[in-house]
Amino acid sequence: MSEVFSSPTLKVEQPRRGPFAKSRYRVLDEDGTVLAVAGETAEKGRVEALRTIFPGKSDLDAHMVLLTTPGGEPLYVVDKRRGRELTEVRGSEGELVGSFVTERIGRRYVLRDGEGGRLGSIAVDLPRNNFEVMDTEGGKVAHVRKKWAGLATHLLTTADKYSVEIFDPVDEPLRTMAVMTAIVMDLNLHESKDIT
Q: Do 97 and 110 meet the contact criterion of CB atoms below 8 Å apart?
């Protein structure tokens, strides 16, 4: 696995853009150094782009996001399937690192490793802003928090900011899946910008 996400505290930011923008992210360490950048790998058609401004629609669409180093070296691909049931994380060579499987939409997810074995779970609070990542024994390994940026920013732009705190030691691939939780939950729960 990559050593890129070795810091215990990370930030995942989605830059402020208009409602027609594609999904883009930056992963930073606690000092603000950019560790990875991400963007959707496929262009959306006009009809698909229009869906992003209507609440409850775009989070059902498929998204594929490529994470690279700032220099452009591929790291991971986040492949959110249509609907909300399955999102896979693949390595730079196409190997399956793990998957997020919906147990209860918007509230609980199961983390699976590349062979399909249970890796852990994610519990989501009611406003969908706090994500507790747990191992198979129920021990908390990470906390991902979506920061509130204000009503206008929430409704009119794609800007979102997440903090990721990892409670070391956390072995791979669970550590990488904990970091990917911010992007996956954004694609699954917040990309449509509906008020819930």
A: no
Across the range 120-146, mean pLDDT stands at 94
Domain boundaries along the sequence of the chain: 9-190
Is-contact 73 37, C-beta < 8 A?
A: no
* Both tokens assigned to 157: 């732009």
CATH topology of domain 9-190: Porin (2.40.160)
Cβ-Cβ contacts under 8 Å for 115 (sequence gap 6 or more): none
**Which helix or strand (DSSP H or E) is residue 142 part of?**
strand 140-147
Segment 35-83, tens digit of pLDDT:
999 988 764 444 444 444 444 444 567 889 999 999 999 999 999 988 7
DSSP assignments along 78-117, one per residue: EEEPSSSSEEEEEETTS-EEEEEEEEETTTEEEEEETTS-
pTM: 0.80
